[in-house]
Every structure is written in C-alpha cells, then in structure tokens.
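Please, structure for the following, as tokens.
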Amino acid sequence: MWGIELRTNSEISLARQIFLSLRKRILTGDILPGELLPSTRELAKGLGTSRNTVCEAYDMLLTEGFIISRQGAPSMVTEGLHMIPGNAGTTQDTKKEQPAIHWNFKTGQPDLSLFPWSSWSQMVHRALNTLPVHQLEYSGPKGYEPLCREISKWLMRSRSMEVNPEDIFITSGATQAFYLLVDILYKKNRPFALENPSHPGIRTVINDRNYPLCFMPVDRQGADVSWIKKMDLSAVYVTPSHQFPLGGILPAVRRASLIRLAAEKDYYIIEDDYDSEYRYSGSPVTPLYSMDPSRVIYVGTFSKTLFPALRIGFAVLPKELQKKWRHFRNYLDVQNPVLEQIALTEFLKIRKMDRHVHHMCRVYAKKRETLLSAAKEAFGSQISAWGDESGLHVALELPEIKFGKDFIPDCRKNGIQIQTISQYCSDENCHTDKLLLGYGHLNEKEIQDGIAALKSLIDASI
C-alpha cells in the first residue's frame, strides 16, 4: 500500500521503515505537495500493522516538517519538498575489475608478521585497566606527557639527539604534522622548497592550499641546496638522513649551508626522519636537528618501526612555534587517542622498541640483500642501486631503459605493483631510468619471484 514494503526481519523498526518510504516518495514527487495521506487507521489496516506503528511514523514526518497535521483533518504533504532525484541510485558501476597483484613492491610497509603483537596487546590491556578517569577528559594538543618523555629518551638512545620533552608534540602520524606546519609556516608569496624527487604527502598538502612551490634537484648525496641560495622562502622540507626516494645522506657541508641560509633568510627547515632507524651499515645518521634546534623542526613517526595503523607520530618544535601549533591542533582534532599513547609509553620505557628495531634491522638487511642479489642476477652489471644501506626501499637505476607512462599500467596487468622515481618528480622526464621497490613486507621468495616477473615484463616490452 502506498508503495510501502515492510521487512519484519530488518534492524530498522517498522515505524521508521514507513517514515523512510513516505519521505522518499515525497522528496521524489511521487506524493505531491498538498496531497492528503491516508488516515493512520486506514494505512495500518492496509499494511497489516498496528495503528500505533503508523502514528509513530506520522509523528516523525510531522516533527521533521514533511507533513502538516490539523486536529480532525487528514495529514497533508508540505509544499516545496519536491527534489529532482540524482543519478547516484541509477548509474551502473563502470569500473573495470582490477587484476590481482601478486608482487607488491609498495614502499613504507613494515613486516607486520614479526611485530610482537602479544606484548603490545598486554600493554593496551594494562593501559585500559589502569587508566585514571581524568585521562578520559580532553588533554589538549600537546599529547600524553609521559610519552613525550619516553620519546625524548628514545631519540637520545637511537640518534644521540638531545631533546627537551616540553618541545615534543604528539601527532596522528607525520602527515598531520606536515598538514599543520604548512599553514603555520607559510609566508605570503614565498614558496616552500622541496627536494626533487620528494615525498608526495608534503607536496600534496602544499598544492591543496595553492601555496607556491620550488624544487631542489637531488643527486646521490641528497638535495642540492645551492639552488635556493638567493630565494626568500616560507620553509624548506628535506629528508637528510635517508632522502626519499633516492636514499642519499645529506653531507655536513650541505647541512651547514642550509642552516646558514635558514638563519639569514629567517625561515625554518622541516626535517622528515621517516625511517632512519633501519640502517644496515654503521649507526643511524645524526639528525639535522642536532646542528641547530632553533631552525629545524624534526618530524618523526612510528608507522615504519611499529605499524601504520597506530597513527602516532611527533614533531619537535622551536619555542616560537608552539603557541601557534597548539591553536591549530586544538581546532583540528584536539588530541590523539590516549590508550595507544599509554601503551607506546610502556613499549619505549621497557626497551621493547629497542629490541624490536634491533631484530628488524637484521631481518630487513637480509631482505635488502636478497632483492639486490636477485636484481643483479636478472639485469646484470647495468643495474645500480641508489642510496645508503638503510630504510625499507631501494631505488634501482637501469640506465639503458626509459620507463614511460605505460609502464606502471603494464606492470599492474601482469600482477606487479611498483613505482617509477619519475612519479615523485615535479617533471615527469626526470629520473626516467629508475624504479622504486619497497621490500620490508615481502618474504624472500616473493622478492625473488617479483624480480623475475619484472625482468620478464621488461624483456617483453623492449
């Protein structure tokens, strides 16, 4: 009756089903403005339900203004409700089914199978059971103070980096730090300087705001900072300990030059230290922050060391920026969830982090060796690996090959997920002879089989 079909096994009440059905017909014009609805008794009889159910549905329509009801008169549809129906419900899904990916060389993905989930679960459980009631209140944009203290100690142990816990601000990953910093640091008509190639996250954040950009070319030693000597900038973004994606370490001369420029031109440097814990030859590289904490904003994350879904990162801020940061963060999302922060505090405090990173360094070093050996066996002496022995990815140069726009789609069709370095460049004609392969999450057989499949595809396309 009246186009209403009731489903008794639905989780939606019968009254709400009637309301939703009538509302839809009113909005689409099936029931016209000024049209009289049947009496509650009549509609209840037609639907085989109780009159109280129909009365409840009519009350919903009346409350939200879809009908007008006067005592002793039938309910009438309100004027001006007819809406032109959209195409969302009628269009067919034209997306083609994507081929299955068998070898996924995505970057930045740790091996989650080796994370100590049992220990982490116990820490989260303890945090839940011991959490004081006042910790359930708003705590503000700074973050959980005990976690800030443990991060300070972790930075000293892992990077010989002296940081005051008061200067550490917890974030929802590194991306949120970039999101906040871009607005905090922007100076009208002054561009942000990025490495070329560089991480798409920071570039996207800047482009979305229509802020100007300029680029520093990257060689095997990282960013060439001489390109920005005469420029007035909003800020400079660099990955000095493990350039993304080419992997170089910014040498001391370039670091000193960059810091001098920042002081002379009065801007800040954003240092993204996204995975320098994993270095397979020697100790982790000392952060740029250690050379001048007053000019460098250090951004770190636990996505690569623990797991991406944790969504806990941090920024070490100069005092002059902290008030502005608090304001921006307070009106973005206020704070991170407290349970994960408490669990991470214990994870750091009992040195579980230290042991986990030490273990994973050995694991990833072996995977890297497997990838490079497989690549050299497949492509011979022509192949060259870029970057220091660190991180969860490697850039491979094949100087006799140019990877065009069709290469990535062709890889996907053949079950291979991979990136070209040119995808991360401001100019798609840069570094066209290089591929980027992440390996942290893959086992040795997947790496070897993936390289073999890549070799077959490249041979077929030449």
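The first strand starts at residue 67 and ends at 68. The longest helix spans residues 352-379.
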